[in-house]
Specification:
Strand content: under 5%
Number of helices: 3
Order of helices and strands: HHH
Shape: globular
CATH topology: Helix Hairpins
Distance between the termini: 25 Å
Radius of gyration: 15 Å
Helix content: 55-70%
Length: 72
């Protein structure tokens, strides 16, 4: 529930917030995501490395170049 609230606050900041407000909201979203992963004993760093360590799982580029309709 808190993660969803923070995502909503991030969306608002992205639409009309300052860069500082956006940065703070990104930090809040990340903090809740990491907290949830810790609660369920998921090594988030390992999970991200496994899925995205080689870049995008679709095109392999570090900055995804997949067409929007085909993004993984």
């Amino acid at each position: 529930m808190w993660l969803s609230e923070e995502i909503g606050e991030l969306a608002t900041a992205l639409r009309s917030g300052t860069h500082e407000e956006q940065s703070l909201e990104f930090a809040d979203v990340l903090a809740w995501l990491v907290t949830i992963a810790n609660v369920v004993d998921v090594d988030l760093e390992a999970a991200v490395a496994k899925k995205y360590g080689g870049g995008c799982p679709g095109c392999g580029a570090l900055a995804c170049t997949c067409p929007d309709a085909e993004k993984p």
